[in-house]
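ok posting inputs for the nicotinamide-adenine-dinucleotide job
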Amino acid sequence: MRTHKIAAIPADGIGQEVIPAGLAVLRALAERCGDFTLDVEHFDWGSDYYRANGRMMPEDGLETLKRFDAIYFGAVGDKDLPDDITLWGLRLKICQGFDQYANIRPTRVLPGLTSPLRAVEPGDIDWVIVRENSEGEYAGHGGRAHRGHPEEIATETAIFTRAGVTRIMRTAFEIAKSRPRRLLTVVTKSNAQKHGMVFWDEIAAEVARDYPTVTWEKELVDAMAARMIQRPGSIDTVVATNLHADILSDLAGAVAGSLGVAPTANLDPSRRYPSMFEPIHGSAFDIAGKGVANPVATFWTATMMLEHLGEPVAGRLLMEAVERVCAAGIRTRDVGGTATTAEVTEAVIAAIKGANL
Ligand code: NAD
Ligand code: MN
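and the output
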């Protein structure tokens, strides 16, 4: 029997609703498959922990997490705390501490869901956005001076390293190579940002030599945003910087129908550290505590976690169950349904057990 050690961190808001839903589904899945178990430990880190302890996670939190095979994460964000405290104090601490340099964001319009794009038919959109997750515009490099004076200044410097760009390109080419279309779009803004982005283009060309079966092309980020709306079927795998891919992947989530169905994985492809799997949405103050959060993004990211853990069969089984439930019209209200989180979860568990829906 294979055992995978999972650290569950629901954190804030609807994270506390969708992660328990995801764990219930994972338990049903392990039972159905019968050849692996998940050894789950829960951590109460987040904004309430901050109110009690003055920090989002314990000082030795990363040390504790190192023992796990994967981290299953909900969302952070609290009405009464600044976002930079909650985000940097927990989620980014894990991403950076564990060098999770590849952020993978798949996008599809699931059966039964409608894209806000009028012309999109099911199957038209099947994208994977690969986001550089460790440097670039979010390297935290910069500062403030002359505070409070008329000449006050703030700088925010983007950092691109040869090692950092090369490894994200390799990850992106590997993913593109593993998909049927073998098409990679390298997104930059090398017309206007003539240092870092030209460097990015050069390294893409270097890495491309090792992937002769992958067709690759360059696209400027603004043109890419338009193309995602106008010619969504022309896109397959996309790689972009931390900032550019952050924006493009929210656009992708919206195109798929709702943020509530968009998953992500923060990977350390070298596997020195545990990788982290999460829905891309935040803590959603407006619906937290109401039991109506869409758990589909959290289920989908669980399929990515299972794949990463070497359980692709279970991953596929879960994704098929989710698709059957969506197609059967058992949907939360953000995607046009009336079901609660619990009803969607029950339906997915029933589908996993092989029931007719
Ligand atoms: P949000 O993603 O929390 O919510 C945006 C909108 O989408 C809301 O109307 C919300 O109700 C809806 N939504 C999100 N997830 C949903 C789901 N699963 N089912 C149904 N509807 C869903 O973004 P926001 O409102 O900008 O941010 C709220 C807080 O979350 C902020 O503190 C922000 O910093 C934080 N945040 C955290 C993360 C993260 O932890 N990765 C990501 C984004 C935002
Ligand atoms: Mn974002």
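notes: The chain has a mean pLDDT of 95. The CA atoms of residues 292 and 340 lie 5 Å apart.
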